[in-house]
Amino acid sequence: MLRATLLVLLLALASPARADDSADFGERLAACAACHGQHGEGVRGAEYYPHLAGKPAGYLFEQLKGFRDGRRASTSMTWYVRFADDAFLQRIAQWYAELPPRTRGADTGAAELTAERRRVAQNLVEHGDPARDLPACSSCHGANLAGLEPGVPALLGLPADYVIAQFGAWREGVRNGAPPDCMHDIAGRIAADDMRAIAVYLSQQSNVDGLRPAPAASFLPPRACGSLPHAQVAK
Ligand code: HEC
Ligand code: HEC
Question: Whose CA is nearest to atom 33 of ligand 1?
C-alpha cells in the first residue's frame, strides 16, 4: 500500500504535463539546487555557493553567459551551461530573479572581526576612500546593499570565501565583466587584509527583510560599468 502510494507520488512528480509551466521549469533546474538551494538561497554548510534568488535578471544573465563564453571561470558552472543558448539562459535568469531574495549563506564568515577591523570594513563599504579613488560600495550596490536593477547584485548574505575569491578572480583577470569592468578596477584598489575584513563584514549582513534590488535609475552610481546603462550614471 505504502509502496503504491509512493509510486503514484513519484509518477506525479515526474509527469511532464503540468498546468503550471513555471513550476515545470523549476523542476528542470533541480541539478542547480544541489549547489544553489531549492529556492536559489545558497547552501549552508557548503558556504562557497552563492545564492541566486532575487538577484537582478540582467546580472544573472550576464554571469551565465560569462561562464559559457569563458569570461568567468568555474569548473562546476561551465559544465552546466556550455551548450545553452541565450534564450534558455535568459529564462533561467528570469526564474531566479523572480524568487524571493533568500540568502542562506549569511553569517558564514568564519573569522572573527575585531571592532577595529569591522570599523574599517564598514567605513569602506559606506564611504569608500577618496585617497585611493575608491568609491563606496553602497554608491553602486545601494545604501541598503540590496543592489540596483538591471546589473548590480546585492551584497547581502554572500559567503565570505566567495567574496574573497571573486576579488581574486577580478584581479587575476579570471572574472571579466563587460567593459568598463568597474569591479576589476575596484579590486585593484583594495589591500588583501581590507578585502578580507570587507568580505567577513558583508557575510554578516543578511537580508532578513527580503529587500529587492532598487529599481533602475532610482539612484545614480558615481561611475560607469559595462552592466549599467551609462545614461543611468552620475556625470
Ligand atoms: C556543482 C555545484 C554547482 C552546480 C550544480 C551549479 N552551480 Fe552555479 N555556481 C557554482 C559555484 C561554485 C559558483 C561560483 C563560481 C565562482 O567562483 O565564480 C556558481 C555561480 C553561479 C552563478 C553566478 C552567481 C553570482 O552571484 O554571480 C549563477 C548565475 C549560477 N551559478 C547558476 C547556476 C545554474 C542556473 C545552475 C544549473 C543549471 C547551476 N548554477 C549549477 C556551483 C554550482
Ligand atoms: C561603480 C559601481 C560599483 C562600485 C563602487 C562597487 N561595485 Fe561591486 N559590482 C558592480 C557591478 C556593476 C557588479 C556586477 C559585475 C558584473 O556584471 O560583472 C558588481 C558585482 C560585485 C560583486 C559580485 C557579487 C556576486 O554575486 O558575484 C561583489 C562581491 C561586489 N561587486 C563587491 C563590491 C564591493 C565589496 C565594493 C566596495 C569595495 C563594490 N563592489 C563597489 C558595481 C560596483
Answer: 32
